[in-house]
Fold these 2 entries.
Entry 1:
Amino acid sequence: MSKVRFEKIKRPEQIKLPFMLDFYPLQDEKYTKINQFFKNLKEGRLTTTKCKNCGKLLWPPRIVCSECLSDELEWVDLGTEGELYGFTEVRLGAPLGFVQDAPFCVGFVKIGGLLISARIDDAKYKDLKIGDKVGLKVVELEDGRVFYRFTPIK
Amino acid sequence: MREVAVVGGGATRAGRREAGWKDLAQEAGKAMFEDVVNLSPKDVDSIFVGAAEPERFAFLSYVAPMVAEYLGITPRKVLARTELACVSGQAAIRYAWNCVATGMSEIAVAIGVEKMYPPDLAEAQTSMACVLDREWDGVNCFSAPPFFAITAQRHMYEFGTTKEQMALVSVKNHHYSSMNPIAHLQKEVTVEAVLKSPVVTPPLNLFDCCPMSDGAAGIILVPAEDAKKYTDTPMYPIGSGQCAIGNAINNLASLTEWVPLKLAAREAWRTAKITKDDVDIAEVHDCFTIAEIMEYEGLELCEKGKGGKFIEDGEPYIGGKVAVNPSGGIMGCGHPLGATSIYHTIEILEQFRGDVHKGRCVSGAEIGIQHSLSGAANQHSIIVYSRGSR
C-alpha cells in the first residue's frame, strides 16, 4: 500500500471583481450598440431611444423598435427633473457590491413620459413622499463608467 | 391531446438545510418515487428540472442530465432544465404535462431544486438582483424586496390598504405552516410580531417577506388512462393560463393591478371549464404579504382594491370563500425558487388525498389551483387541478 500524501494548497484570497459580478453595464462601443446613452449621460443628459418610424418612446434604450421592428431610432432627451412615483429604503438584504451603502433609498421616477427605477441619493426614507420632485445626478465609477441617479430638489 | 394525471410527488423539508444542491435533488427524487407503486426511475422517459439560478447559488450548470443521472433516470424522449425565476418549477410541470399530453412522453418527471444558502448570504442576494434586468433595474438594487415594497406603498396609497391587513396574511400563512411538517417555518406569528419584526424595505418588515430556502420537490406525470397503475389517488391538470406583460418597470401594465394575473386566471377558468367559484384551494404566490392581497384581487375573488378587507373578513381561511394557501404558502413553507411551484402542487395532491394535518385540511376539495408569479410580477402562471378525471 502506498503512503498517502497530504499537501495544503491555496486559492487567491483576493481577485479583481469580475465583470459579471458587477451590476453596472459595460458602456463603450466594443461592448454595446447603445453606447450613445452613456456618452450623453457623461454630458449630464438623460436620454433614450425613440422610434422614427412609429414614434414609440422606448425604455430601456435599444437598437430595434419593439413596436414596429424599425431600426431607425433617434436619441431624445428626457429632461433632468422627475417626480417620485414610489420609493423605499434598502435596509437589509443588499447584494454584494451594495452592502456597504445600506441603508439607501431607491424609487420609481416619472420622467419624460417614462417610469424608471433609480437610486435616490442624499435622502432619508422618512423625509421623502410620493410626488416629490427629484433631479438627475450622474455618478462615475473609477473606471470611467457612468450611471444615473436622482436626488430630491428642495 | 390526451388527458394527463399527476400520480405522485415528494419533497424535502424546506429550510436552511445542511445539504448540498445534489443532496436535495436526491432526497426529493427518492420521496417522489416512493410515493408511487409499479414505477421505477428506469421507466421515466422524460425529465424537466426547474432551477432558477444554480449557476449563482451553487455554481452548477447543465443540471438536467445531472439530476437524471443521480435519480437513475435515462431520458429517451425529452429533457431540459426550465428557468423562469420563481416559476421555474411550474414551467417544468407545463413542459412535462405537454409532452405527455401530446404523446411525446409516456412517463415524465418535473422536479425543482434550489440551494439558496451559500456561505455568504450577500452572494445569494446578488443572484436575486439579476432577475430584474440587471443593467437597468438590478443595478438600482431592484431585487424582490424593494420592488414589492414600492408595490405595497402604492397599494396603500391608492386603496388605503394597511400594514395590519398585510400582517394578517403572514399570520394566516404561518398558522397553516405551523401544521406542515415540511415547511421552512413552523411557528405561528401574531400581527404585533409582524409589525415589530425588523424592517427590510419599508413598508415591508421581515415577516412580510417569505424566507429564502433550500429545497427540492418532484412529481410524476403519466397519461390519465394509465394513472391507476401507479396510485389510487391521482389528480388531473385540467386547464391553465399564463401571461407576461412587459419586463422593465416602465413597461409593466400597472404596478397596483396585476393585469397578467387577471388574464392568466380567466384563461385558466376558460380552459378548465370552471368558474372562479369552483375553486376550493388556491395555492398562490405569497412571496410578500402584499402579493397575496393583490392575488385575491387579480383572481377576482374580491373587488379591485379590497384585498385587505378580504383577509380582514377571514375569507381566505379554510371555511371562508376559498382556502388560500392552506399549506402555509411561500411565507410559511419557504421559497426554494425552482421547487416552489412543485411544493404547492404536491400540497394540492395531498389535500385531495386528505393526507394533511386536520387543522389545515380542506375537506371535500375537488378543484385546486397553483399560481406562481415571477420577476416584477410581470409574469403569472396558473394550473388548475381536479381530484376527479374529466
Entry 2:
Amino acid sequence: MLEATGITVSFGRHRVLDGVSLSVRPGEVVGLAGPSGCGKSTLARVLALLLRPSAGTVGIDGRAVTRWRHRAPQRTSIGLIFQQPRLAVDPRFTLLEVITEPLRAARRPLDRATRLAEELGLTPELFVRRPHEVSDGQLQRACVARALALEPRYLICDEMTTMLDASTQAHLVARIEAYRERTGAGVLAISHDAELLDRWSGGNVQEWQPRPAEITG
Amino acid sequence: MNLRVDGLSVRFHIPGAVVHAVTDARFELRAGRCLAVVGESGCGKSVMAHALLGLLPGNATVSGHAWLGGSDDAIDLVAATEKVLARQVRGRMVGLVPQSPAAHLTPVRTARAQLAETLRELGRSETPDELAERAGLRPKDLDSYPHQLSGGMAQRVANALALAGDPPLILADEPTTGLDRPLVEATMTELRRLCDEGRTVLIITHDLRAAELVADDIAVMYASRIVELSEAGTFFAGPRHPYAKGLLDALPSRRFVPIPGQPPELTRLPDGCAFLPRCSWATQACDERPPWRRATATATVEGGATAETAAATVERVACHHA
C-alpha cells in the first residue's frame, strides 16, 4: 500500500496541505478530484518522494520513507506522470532517449523501451524526434512509457490528460489500465475532471474542497 | 460583424519539408454566433486562429481569403498588410482571449497598468476601472500583480484586455486549458454573453465538453482540413464524419474508447482521405479525397424546414460515406 499520513506542506507562510492522509492499495484506482490550488499536485509530489513534507509520513508497502529526492532508494517503485509533458522532458533528448533514461539510470536492459513505445502508439519514425518536433499528445505518450519503464508498483497521474483531446485521453487511460491489470499496480489519478475520474476509478473518487481538508483512504 | 473564411491554407517551410498546417478551410460565421473549432493537438486549429491575426512566423505562407466585416467594407485578413493589421484589426476588430491568461500577462506590472496601457494605445476614453467592471472585476483587484491573481481573476483580466477596444470578433485560443471545471464553465458563460451581445465568437479548443457549453456551430478539424461543420445540436446528437464520431465516443461520459492509430504527419499527407487508415468505414472510394459537400439533412431538419432553416448554418462534411 502507498500510504500518506498526516502530511503537512508549507511554502513560506502559506500552508498548502494540513495533516492530509490518503492511501492507494495495490491493484486499485483512486481518483482525487478538486479545484485548482487545493494541493492535489503538492500531494502527488510528496507521494512520488520528490518533495519532503514538513510533517507526516509516507509508507510504501509497509516501509516508511526516510530519504527523499535523489537519495530515495524507493523512488523507482513510484511512477509519476505530469500535466505538461513539455516541461517534464529534457528538450535535448529524442523520444526514445526520454523512455530509456530511467532504464539507463537503473542499469536495466534498454530493449524494452522500444516495446513500450510501440504499446503507447509511437511509430519508429517518432523515436528519433525531439520534443519540439512532436505534438503534446505524442510527447505525453512518451512520458507514460517513461513512467512505466521501471514497472513501478504505484502510478501517480497528475492531470495527465488535461492538455489532450478525448481520443488520446481514452488511449492513455486504457494503456495504464492494461498495465494495472497485468502487474497489480496501484494508481492514483488526479484531475479536476470528476467525470473522467468517476469512469476511470469506477466511482472510487475523493473530492477535495478548496480548503485542504483531512481525508482518509 | 461577419467572418467569411474562404479557401484559407497555411504552409510552413522547414528544411527538407513543407508542413501542411491548414488546407482549404471554408466557413462563414455571422454576428451573434459562436463557432467552436475542435480537433486533437497538432491538427492545425491554432495555426488557423493565428493566421487570422497575422501572427504566424516568417516561414509560413498563407493563401486564400478571410473576409471580416460587412459585404461592402470587409477587410481580407490574409491580404492585409502588417500596418493595417496593427492599426485597424488587432484589438480593434479582433480581440484575442489567450491560452493560459496568467502567463499572458506581464508579470512585473499590475493589472491596472496593463489595462491602462492597452486603453491608451487603442485610443479609448474608458478608464481601467470601468473596463474592469464590465469584465466582472472590482477596481481594487486591478492593483494586484499577475501572480497575486487567482486563475479566474487572471482570466477576467485577460478578457478585459481582449475587450478593451470593443472588438466585434472575439478569438479564443484554447481558453480553458488547465482550468478546473467551475472556471471552464465561468469562462464559457462569459464567452456566451459576449456572443449574445452581438459579437462574433470563434473558439479553438480540444475540449468537446467546453465547446458543447457555448457553441452554436462546431467545426471538426483533422490533419489540416475541416472535415465536418454542423450546428452544435446536430453534432452532439450524432456527428456525421467518422472521426467526429470517434472523438465523441472517446469521452468518459460516452464509450471511453480511443480511435485506433494516430493522425498522419502534416508533412506527408495522403492524396486521398487522411482518416482512411483509422477508419472502419473505409472502402476503395476513400483513395480519392472526399469533396467538401453539403451534408444530407437529418430527420429533424427535414421535419422543421421553415424560414429559420434558411438562416441556419449550412452543414457540410468531407466523407464519401457520411
